[in-house]
Structures are given as structure tokens and as C-alpha cells.
Amino acid sequence: MSAEPLRYAIVGGAAVIADEHIQAIAGLPSARLAAIADVNVEKGAQRAQELGCSFYADYRELLAQERPDVVAVCTPHPVHAPVAIAALEAGSHVLCEKPLASLPSEADAMIAAAERTGKLLAVNFQQRFRPEVEYARALIAGGELGELVRSLCVAPWLRTHAYFRTASWRGTWAGEGGGVLLNQAPHTIDLFIHLAGMPSRVWGITRTVRQPIATEDVASVLVEYGNGAQGYFVASTVEAGPLGRIELVFENGILMLAKGNIQRYAFTPGLTEHIRTSPQPFAAPEVHEVPVELPTGRASHVEVYADFDRAVREGSNPRAPGREGLWSLEFSSAAILSSYTDQPVSLPVDRAAYDALIARLIEEERARERAV
């Protein structure tokens, strides 16, 4: 590909999250923001004027007139799929905000469109660039830790009532397709699966406890992996404090990750060998901490854009391609379906069953609104 700057466009360019995308594009010498689109004409036009780029009220007109190299999708979740598919079919590569879509069936269609058109589809999972995550991922992939034994993920994402008043679609089934699992926690879910792997079954409990919303503000998920390992995931917008973390126990050691930090412990001998061969009924294997030196680094939109720009130019895979972007949505959908059916759900989630559930929840939500 030419060394000329890639022409970027942002659909949802008046959204709050679009600020991060705009700054990342501005900091990339190989990129130029050509246009933004937004249904909020007043705010969108003003922002475009400030940025010195074109503005469109209709993203389809933007695609036809500008023919950008890359489209960033920053709209509310239910609009991700139609915008991304239209952009891919118009010849653009697509970088989508999380979650990939509201429904796994929509995400399937987005992935199929990318494969059909030969264009890249990626998700903005910038936390994959955290140094401790990169270290853990490489260590796990290298096989030194052995098989997973147990996983734990705690994800407090506190929000106030004022947050949900900032936009009428927040916390609604029609506007977001879910609550903490679809809006706040996708980054954490992605890291959980990125490191521990995709579970084979989940048992979910989702509830609305303290927030003035229709969707869940707390979710607890028991997970089972294909090798028999078990785990637990909890996310909440009604919890605060420094307890957010991922703990992973493997055959040969333990990893404990918190933002910006990682602790590693090694077992000597490994768990299976020790359990089988130790003559002592209550003795534990030797456990010692392994020093970890992490490189300095950031996990921001800047790294995401630099990575995606490189992938477009080289024809290589971005850090979080569309198929992996589906992971967190698959997990959250299975947890919600499990909660509403009061049954364990195997992954991949049944698309028809989940689509029907969300359609019912949206209709019930609209019926309540009409009754007010």
C-alpha cells in the first residue's frame, strides 16, 4: 500500500468516546481524519468545523462521497452492525468500538462481510496492550504454566445515576442490548477470555439492584472449561474499590493481574505430580514468587490505531480481529440467556434463542414506556 496517509472517517463522531479516536488519529503521522458522521447534526457539524474535516448527517452519504480507507464505528451498540457492514461493502476497513455488536448474530454478519469483502474488521480492545497482559499472554501461550486449573475475574465498574441520565439509551435493552456486561465490562471479559480461554459452559445470574435501568447492573457467572477447569466472573456498576483483578491458577503456577501490575508464582513440583506422589496427606507443593519485570507501555487508543494502521498497510492481523472481538459478546450473551432461562448455557450461544430473548425484553421495555 502507498505511504500516503490513510483517510479515516468516524461514524458517531459527536459521541463522547469519539474524542479518544480523534486524538489517536491526530497523533498518527500515517493517518488523516477526512470526515465524521453523526445524527446529532448541530454537535457533529460543530465538531467537524473544529477539526477541519467534512461532516455528514448520514453515514451512507459519507461512505459514497468520501470513500475512506478506514471507518471507526463509535455509535450506540445496536447500530454497529449496519454501519460496519455498509462500510466494509463500500471498500473500507473497519475499527469498531466495543462491544462488536448487540447480538452475536449481528456480529456473525459483520465477520462474514469482512471475509466476503477481504477487508479488516477489528474491535477497540486497547487493554490487550497493557504490559502485564502482553507478558501473561506470551507466558501462557508458551506452555510453561501448563493447563488451566481455575480462573477468577472481579470487574467493578462503578457508575452513578447521573451517568445513566447522560443519554436516554443508556441502560436500555433497545439502546444497548444489555447492561454492565454489554457496556462497561467487555474490556475485562475480553482479557479474561484472552488469557484463560473461552469456557464451554456458563451459569449466569444477572440482576438490576441499585441503578435506575432496565438492564443488569450486576452479573455473576460460573464458568466451566473444556478440560474440566472451573472459574468465576463478577461485574458490577454498583461496586467500588481496588479489588478489580484476574487470578489464574495453572498446573505449574499462578498469575494475578491488576491494572499495571502482575504477580507470578511457581509450583515445585506441578500440582498433578505433587497430588499423585506426595506421601504427606496435607502437604502443599513448594510455592515461590517469580520476579517479573514489565516494560513501560500504555494501553490507549493510540496503540490500537497504530496497530490497526500497520495491519491495513501490511495486510496482517490486528491485535483484536473481529472473530476475537466476538468472544466477549458470546460470553455476555450466554450469561444473560442463562440467567433468564435459569439453565446452564453451552457456548457458542444459540443465536435464535438469544435473539428471541432480547426481542422479548425490548418489547416488554417498550410496553412499560407506553404505559407511563
How is this structure best described in words?
The chain is α/β, with parallel strands linked by helices and 372 residues long. It is 38% helix and 23% strand. The strands form two sheets. Strands 14-13-12-11-7-10-9-8-15 form a nine-stranded mixed beta sheet. A six-stranded parallel beta sheet has the order 3-2-1-4-5-6, with helices on both faces. Strand 9 and strand 10 form a beta hairpin. The longest helix has 21 residues. The N and C termini lie far apart (56 Å).
Question: What attributes does this structure have?
Answer:
single chain; 372 residues; alpha/beta; Rossmann fold; Dihydrodipicolinate Reductase, domain 2; nine-stranded mixed sheet; six-stranded parallel sheet; 12 helices; 15 strands
Quick structural summary:
By secondary structure, the protein is of the alpha/beta class.
Secondary structure layout plus pairing:
Blueprint (H helix, E strand, L loop, with lengths): L5 E6 L6 H9 L4 E7 L3 H11 L2 E3 L2 H8 L3 E4 L6 H10 L3 E4 L7 H14 L3 E3 L7 H12 L5 E9 L4 H4 L21 H11 L4 E7 L10 E7 L5 E7 L8 E6 L2 E6 L2 E8 L2 H7 L8 E5 L10 H14 L7 H20 L3 E2 L4 H21 L1
Parallel strand pairs: 1-2, 1-4, 2-3, 4-5, 5-6, 7-10
Antiparallel strand pairs: 7-11, 8-9, 8-15, 9-10, 11-12, 12-13, 13-14
